[in-house]
Amino acid sequence: MLEINFNFESDQLKNAGFNNEEEIEPFIQQIFDELNEDIDAYLKELDQDTYETLTKIVDDIAPMVLESLKLNASEMLSNNRSADKEFTELIEAKWGNALNKLEMFLVISQEAVEYVNDEYGKSIDPEGDLILETLIRLHARACQISREIITLLRHGFADGAHARWRSLHEIAVVGIFLAEGNEELSERYVLHEDIESYKAALQYRKYSEELGLDEIDDQEFEEVKEIRDKLIDRFGKEFNGDYGWAAAALNNKRPNFSDIESAISLDHYRPYYKLASHNVHANAKGLFVKLGLREDSRDILLADSSDYGLTEPGHSMALSLGILTVQVLTHNSTVDLFVISKMIKQLSDELGDEFSEIEISENNN
């Protein structure tokens, strides 16, 4: 409340009908209080008017600016693509031999497993070789990711390629773990899709209305739940976990991915896996540690491609795809497949050396 003090003359008080200042001050204070309330109301009204005016201006201007950008988009994109083309040519000149050999490695791996699939593969069927069929499906995913990695590397996105290698590593680890297990382990792995379907249905049902999606009907949901419940009854409640399919094989009721890595002696890749995770998750480390930047360039904000740091994702891709490919090829022992496996291992080693030589040369310049 605003406090007001006045000094009045005696004749002023008498003319106003008051005997002293104490009698008049409450009336004056009331006037100022009401005035203060009027000012506050005015300012609130003014703020609302100003907000509505600014909103209208923004709503009117934004479409005009966007339309202007659309009209000039052709020139803008043309300039951007010209710059991209020049940069990919720079990467080709520097890393081309290694990248071409990496692509050759992918093609050899893919064609070798295609041969195995033609000769021995069948649709997933409990009566067939479930281990081999599952490995072939995992290998197909691995080849797709490897193609993505090469595409990212050819355009200078080392960190993006490394993030994709993280997924490739997971696929390779799971594949080797299944290959070293029995048919029941592969069956559990394949059937675990129904556990994931149930979890997805729960999420869908929870948010479908908020997302404006059609609701899953009760009958469909109950069918998914029934399949899940039967699997839990068959394999135990631990089967409901994210890696519940591996629980029995690991003798661990709550296994995780690192447990599977350790079981097949690939846990020494964990530092590289953790490094790649910085490019997947939104942790602070990913703000400062970038493969595409030299160690002395942490202050640079890398918002685009770079011609540095391709060694780590390139060599890692060769290692992971290589060990999975060899695992598929040696599942059925033939001389031809062993020869191809030996060739793949040799090429993987050569790729590591070639990528490293380029990076060492870069660091020395």
How would you describe this structure to a colleague?
With 365 residues, the chain is an all-alpha fold. It has 13 helices and no strands. Helix 5 packs parallel to helix 12. It is extended, with a radius of gyration of 34 Å.
Proportion of β residues?
under 5%
Cα(first) to Cα(last) distance is 72 Å
Structure annotation, total helices: 13
- Which percent range fits the helix content? over 70%
Q: Which structural class do the helices and strands define? A: mainly alpha
Radius of gyration: 34 Å
- How would you describe the shape? extended
Kindly report the average pLDDT value.
87
Order of helices and strands: HHHHHHHHHHHHH
Strand element count = 0
Q: Which regions have little confidence, pLDDT < 50, spanning 5+ residues?
A: none
Oligomer: single chain
The biggest sheet amounts to: none
